[in-house]
Design brief:
heterodimer; A: alpha+beta; 10 helices; 4 strands; 7% strand; B: mainly beta; 5-stranded mixed beta sheet; disordered N terminus
C-alpha cells in the first residue's frame, strides 16, 4: 500500500485512540465523596479498620459515628454503586468501537480474480455527541457522588439517633431501677409492719402490688435498652458476637448557644445539602442531554468511515464513505420528547426536595426549641420541687406527722421526674440530630450569623 | 380623779381612730386576778362610769418559742386582756374594730339590757371595720364571765378572740383567797408549716392551749404553803376538758352563774369544764412541790401529731436500715418501742421538723424530759415565796422520793403470775 494510505490510516486510528483518553478513575470519585463528607462532618476518619482499643471506653457520640463510617455494611454497598457511575463515565469518554467490514469476493461464473474489500465505519452521531456525552456523564457522576455522600451523612445521623436512644435507654433503666427499689423497700417495710400485727393484709398486698408494678416497668425499660443496643450495633457494623461495648450512662448537657435565624438556616440548608446539589446536578445533566438531543436529532443514525478495495487486477481504491439516515418518517421527535419528560420530572423532584427540606428544617427547629424549654422546666422546676416535697415530708415524718410510706411515695414521684427529664432531653437531642440532617451538615448549627 | 383628755370628751359615743396601745390611766386599780401569760385591761373613771377600751385587731402571737401565727385578739393579745369590775358598778366598754371584717362583742354570762347583748344581727348592727361602738350597763351580779365576738364566730373564735370578764362581789368573801388565777381553754388548727390557724377545722385540732399558750410556755401557778388559791377556768374551745390537779384536792365553788352556796361546793381532783362553761376551783396549797395541772385528755397535752400514720410500735426495721438510708435520707427510724425515744431526740433538738412547728412533746425537768405540750402547766408550792418570781425547780432532796430498788433476785418482790398463763 502507498505510504499516504498508511499515514492516513494511522492518523485516523490515532485520532480515534487519543480522543477517548479522558476517563475518571474510581478512586477520584471515592476521594470526592470523602472530602464532601469531611467538609460537613469534621474529624471523621477516611478509611481503615476499626481499632480494637476504641471499644475499651464507653463510646462517645463522635467515636460511634467514626466506627459507623468505617464499618457500616450498607455504606460499603453504596460505595460499590459508585463503580456503576464510574463505568458510565469511562464509557462516555470513549468513542464507540468502529466496525471493520471485510469482504473477499471469489470469482464464480466467468469473472477472473478475487476482490478484497475492507471498510472501517463509526457512528457519526457518536463523533458529534461525544463531548456533550462526556459532560453529561461527568455531571451524573458528580451527582452520584453527592447521593452517596448524602447516604454517608444519613448513616451518621442515624447513628447519632441510635446512640442518643441507647444512652437514654441506659439512663431510664437506672431510674426505673431506683423506683423499683424504693417500691420494694415499701413492700418490705409493710411486711415488717404486718409481722408486728400493725397493718392489715389488705394494706400489705397494696404495697406488694405497687412493688411488682414497678418491677414490671423496669423490665420494660430493660427490653427497650436491648432493642436500642441492637439497633446501634447494627449501624456500627459490629459483629453480634462482640458484646463488650458500652455507651455513657447519662446524656450530655444541652449546648447553650442559640440557633441562627430560621431564614439563614434555610438558605444554608439549600446551599449545603448534598441531595439537593445532586438533584440539581441531575437536572443540569438532563439539560445538556436535552440540548444535544435537540441539536443532533436528525443525524443520530448516520455513520461515517473509510473504505478500501483491491480489485482482482491489483488496483486499489480507498476513500471515505458515509451512510446518512434520511429523516423521512420521523425527525427524532420521540427522543426529544423523552428527554423533555425526563427533564420535567427531574425539575419537579428538585422543587419537591427543596420544599420538603425547608419544611423539615422548620419542624426540627421548633421541636428543638420546645424540647429545650421542656428540659429547663424539668431541671429548674419539677425536679427541685419534687426534691423539696421529699425534704418537707421528711421533716413531717421526723415529727411523727406522716409515716415512711408517705415519704417513699414522694421519693418515687421524685424518681419519676428524673425519668421525664431523661425523655425530655432525648426529645431535644433527636430534634438536634434531625436538624443536622435537614441542614445537610453536622457542623454549623452553633456557628453564627 | 385625774382630768384627762378623755374625761373632757366624756359623753361622746365614738372616738376617732384610737391608738393600738391604750394609755395606762392612773386610776386603774391593781389587778386582783392574775391572768396567766396575760394581763388585766386598764380603765378610767369617766363621769362615774368605769370605762374600758377594747381594740379588736390582728396580731402575731407566739404559742411557744418556735411557733407563732397570725391571730386575732384584743389590744395586742389573745386572749384579750381580762376585764375586772365590781358588782354594782356601771361599766362602759368602747370597742374599736381594726379587723378586716365586721364584729361585735357578746358578754357571756352577763345580765344586761337586750340591746347590749352583742349578738350581731339580733341585738345590734355589726361594728364595721374602722368603727368604734360603746356598750354600757350596770353590773348586777358577780362571777367569772367571758367576752367574745358574736359575728363570724367560726373565724373570729378560731383565730383567738376571747377574754375574761370577772365581776368581783361587793363584799369580800369567806374564806379569803391569797392567790387568784384565770385560765381560758382553747384549741387551734395551726397545721404544721403554716402561719395562720385554719378556721374550717371543727374537731381535729393541732394545738390545745391555756390562755393561748402551750407547755412549756405556760406560766406556772405559784403559791406559798398554806395559801388559799382560786383558779377560774373558762372553756371557749370545741371540746370539754377534764382539768386535773396533782397533789391537792380542790372544791368547785362557782361558775359564770356566780359563787355557789357552800352546800353545793364539790370536792374534786378532776373537773370537766364543758364547752361554754366556767368553773371556779379553790384549794389550800398545803403540799409543797412542783405539781402538774393539766387537761386529762392525753392528746390535749400533746402538740401536733399525725393520726393516720402506720403504727410503728413493735415493727422491726433494723434489716432495712441500709436501704432506708438510700431512699429515705434524713428520715430517723423511731417508734419501734414506743414514743419515748422519739421524744428524747426531738427534745434534744436532734431532728429538724417542719418550719414553725413544735415537737409533739417537750419540756425538760430536773429529772429528765417531761414530754408534755398543750394544756399542761405547773403549780409550784413552796414554804415561802419571794414576790411573784418563779422559784425554779423544787428541791426534793430532803423529802421522800421514789427510788430504784437494788436486789439480787431477778424479780424483786417475787410477783405472783396467774397460773393459767403457764401451762
Amino acid at each position: 500500500m502507498s505510504n499516504s494510505c498508511w499515514r492516513m490510516g494511522c492518523a485516523i486510528a490515532t485520532a480515534f485512540l487519543f480522543s477517548g483518553c479522558a476517563g475518571l478513575p474510581l478512586d477520584q470519585g471515592r476521594s470526592n465523596v470523602h472530602s464532601m463528607v469531611q467538609a460537613r462532618a469534621p474529624m471523621m476518619p477516611v478509611a481503615g479498620a476499626v481499632p480494637g482499643e476504641w471499644f475499651a471506653q464507653p463510646l462517645t457520640l463522635e467515636r460511634a459515628q467514626q466506627i459507623a463510617l468505617l464499618g457500616n455494611p450498607s455504606l460499603k454497598a453504596r460505595y460499590a454503586e459508585l463503580g456503576l457511575s464510574a463505568a458510565d463515565v469511562f464509557e462516555a469518554g470513549r468513542l464507540q468501537n468502529p466496525s471493520l467490514g471485510l469482504s473477499w469476493l471469489l470469482p464464480t461464473g466467468g469473472a477472473e480474480g478475487s476482490k478484497v474489500g475492507a471498510s472501517l465505519m463509526t457512528s457519526f452521531a457518536d463523533l458529534l455527541l461525544r463531548s456533550s456525552r462526556q459532560r453529561i456523564a461527568n455531571l451524573e457522576y458528580a451527582s452520584q457522588q453527592e447521593v452517596i455522600a448524602t447516604a454517608v451523612l444519613d448513616v451518621l445521623a442515624d447513628t447519632g439517633r441510635a446512640w442518643f436512644e441507647c444512652v437514654a435507654a441506659n439512663q431510664r433503666v437506672a431510674v426505673r431501677r431506683s423506683i423499683a427499689e424504693a417500691a420494694q423497700l415499701a413492700a418490705d417495710l409493710a411486711r415488717q409492719y404486718r409481722d408486728a400485727g400493725n397493718i392489715s393484709d389488705l394494706e400489705l398486698q397494696v404495697q406488694r402490688a405497687e412493688a411488682t408494678q414497678a418491677r414490671i416497668a423496669l423490665h420494660d425499660a430493660q427490653l427497650d435498652l436491648a432493642d436500642a443496643r441492637a439497633t446501634l450495633q447494627k449501624l456500627l457494623g459490629i459483629s453480634a458476637l462482640r458484646s463488650a461495648w458500652a455507651v455513657p450512662e447519662s446524656l450530655p448537657d444541652m449546648p447553650s448557644s442559640a440557633l441562627p435565624m430560621a431564614d439563614e438556616l434555610a438558605a444554608r440548608a439549600i446551599e449545603q445539602r448534598l441531595d439537593i446539589a445532586s438533584a440539581r446536578g441531575h437536572v443540569q445533566a438532563l439539560r445538556v442531554k436535552h440540548e444535544s438531543t435537540r441539536r443532533y436529532r436528525l443525524l443520530v443514525d448516520s455513520r461515517v468511515g473509510a473504505t478500501l478495495d483491491r480489485e482482482a487486477d491489483g488496483a486499489r481504491r480507498v476513500g471515505p464513505s458515509a451512510e446518512i439516515a434520511l429523516p423521512v418518517f420521523q425527525q427524532g421527535q420521540g427522543a426529544v420528547a423523552r428527554v423533555e419528560a425526563e427533564l420535567a420530572a427531574a425539575m419537579a423532584k428538585l422543587e419537591e426536595l427543596e420544599i420538603s427540606a425547608q419544611a423539615e428544617l422548620a419542624r426540627q427547629v421548633s421541636r428543638r426549641e420546645l424540647a429545650r424549654e421542656q428540659v429547663q422546666a424539668y431541671r429548674e422546676g419539677l425536679i427541685p420541687e419534687r426534691e423539696a416535697v421529699v425534704a418537707r415530708l421528711t421533716e413531717q415524718a421526723n415529727y411523727m406527722l406522716v409515716d415512711s410510706f408517705a415519704v417513699l411515695m414522694a421519693r418515687q414521684q421524685e424518681y419519676d421526674a428524673y425519668a421525664g427529664y431523661v425523655d425530655a432531653q432525648l426529645k431535644f437531642w433527636n430534634a438536634h440530630v434531625e436538624l443536622q440532617r435537614a441542614m445537610g451538615s453536622l457542623r454549623g448549627l452553633e456557628e453564627s450569623r | 380623779m385625774k382630768v384627762s383628755r378623755r374625761t373632757l370628751l366624756a359623753g361622746a359615743a365614738t372616738l376617732a381612730a384610737a391608738p393600738t396601745t391604750v394609755v395606762k390611766a392612773a386610776v386603774s386599780g391593781p389587778a386582783r386576778v392574775r391572768t396567766l401569760n396575760g394581763r388585766s385591761l386598764e380603765w378610767n373613771w369617766v363621769g362615774g362610769v368605769k370605762e374600758f377600751h377594747l381594740i379588736a385587731e390582728e396580731m402575731e402571737h407566739e404559742f411557744a418559742p418556735g411557733c407563732r401565727a397570725r391571730c386575732w385578739g384584743y389590744n395586742g393579745s389573745t386572749p384579750g386582756p381580762t376585764i375586772e369590775a365590781v358588782e354594782g358598778e356601771r361599766v362602759r366598754i368602747l370597742v374599736t374594730n381594726r379587723l378586716p371584717e365586721p364584729t361585735t362583742v357578746h358578754w357571756h354570762g352577763l345580765l344586761l339590757p337586750n340591746g347590749m347583748d352583742g349578738v350581731g344581727g339580733l341585738n345590734q348592727p355589726h361594728i364595721q371595720p374602722g368603727e368604734t361602738w360603746a356598750y354600757e350597763f350596770t353590773l348586777r351580779q358577780h362571777g367569772t364571765c367571758l367576752y367574745h365576738p358574736h359575728a363570724d364566730e367560726m373565724t373570729q373564735l378560731a383565730f383567738g378572740m376571747m377574754g375574761f370578764f370577772i365581776i368581783h362581789p361587793r363584799e369580800s368573801q369567806e374564806p379569803p383567797v391569797q392567790r387568784d388565777y384565770a385560765l381560758l381553754l382553747h384549741n387551734w388548727a395551726l397545721h404544721p408549716g403554716t402561719y395562720r390557724p385554719d378556721p374550717a377545722v371543727m374537731t381535729e385540732f393541732d394545738l390545745w392551749t391555756f390562755n393561748s399558750k402551750v407547755f412549756p410556755a405556760t406560766e406556772p401557778l405559784l403559791a406559798a404553803q398554806g395559801e388559799r388559791v382560786r383558779l377560774r377556768v373558762g372553756n371557749l374551745s370545741m371540746h370539754n376538758h377534764p382539768i386535773h390537779l396533782h397533789g391537792h384536792r380542790f372544791v368547785v365553788t362557782g361558775s359564770d352563774g356566780g359563787r355557789w352556796p357552800r352546800t353545793l361546793w364539790r370536792p374534786e381532783i378532776t373537773e370537766i369544764i364543758g364547752v361554754g362553761q366556767v368553773r371556779e376551783l379553790e384549794f389550800i396549797a398545803d403540799n409543797p412541790g412542783d405539781w402538774a395541772l393539766h387537761c386529762h385528755m392525753s392528746h390535749h397535752t400533746m402538740n401536733a401529731m399525725g393520726h393516720s400514720l402506720a403504727n410503728p410500735v413493735g415493727v422491726k426495721q433494723g434489716a432495712l436500715e441500709e436501704r432506708m438510708r438510700q431512699h429515705l435520707p434524713g428520715v430517723m427510724r423511731m417508734g419501734e418501742s414506743g414514743m419515748f425515744e422519739h421524744n428524747t431526740h426531738l427534745g434534744m433538738g436532734h431532728v429538724k421538723g417542719p418550719e414553725n412547728t413544735l415537737p409533739m412533746a417537750m419540756g425538760q425537768g430536773p429529772f429528765g424530759q417531761i414530754e408534755m405540750g398543750g394544756m399542761f402547766t405547773l403549780l409550784k408550792v413552796r414554804p415561802r415565796l419571794v414576790g411573784d418570781a418563779d422559784p425554779g425547780w423544787y428541791d426534793s432532796a430532803s423529802v421522800p422520793r421514789a427510788h430504784k430498788v437494788q436486789s439480787t433476785q431477778p424479780e424483786p418482790g417475787a410477783p405472783v403470775h396467774n397460773d393459767h398463763d403457764h401451762h
